[in-house]
């Protein structure tokens, strides 16, 4: 299989999305990619084309969460 590399900007976005606690597990559940594979991709910056495309979709589709507290 052929491998493909993330661009520098994409790799930074992926690292930013996956740096919080539990983010790798969440990504693994949503994309179906194993957590060890995600860790390897963060180190090397390359993977097979189907995995890269799944992670690109994950990067673009991740919505941020907003928590609003009411004053008591």
In DSSP terms (H or I, runs of 4 or more residues), the helix count works out at 4
Order of SSEs? EHHHEH
Could you tell me the number of beta strands?
A: 2
Overall average pLDDT: 84
β content, as a range? 5-15%
Biggest sheet overview: 2 strands, antiparallel
Strand order of the largest sheet: 1-2
Structural class, from secondary structure content?
mainly alpha
Q: In percent, how helical is the residue content?
A: 55-70%
Structural shape: elongated
Give the termini distance in whole angstroms: 58 Å
Uncertain parts? none
Kindly provide the radius of gyration, computed on alpha-carbon positions and rounded to a whole number of angstroms: 14 Å
Produce a short descriptive summary.
The chain is mainly alpha-helical and 72 residues long. It has helices at 8-17, 23-31, 35-44, 49-61, and strands at 3-5, 46-48.
Features:
2 strands, two-stranded antiparallel sheet, mainly alpha
How would you describe what is shown here?
The chain is mainly α and 72 residues long. Helix content is 58%, strand content 8%. It has 4 helices and 2 strands, in the order E-H-H-H-E-H. It has helices at 8-17, 23-31, 35-44, 49-61; strands spanning 3-5, 46-48. The chain has a two-stranded antiparallel ribbon with strand order 1-2. The longest helix is centred in the C-terminal third of the chain and has 13 residues, at 49-61.
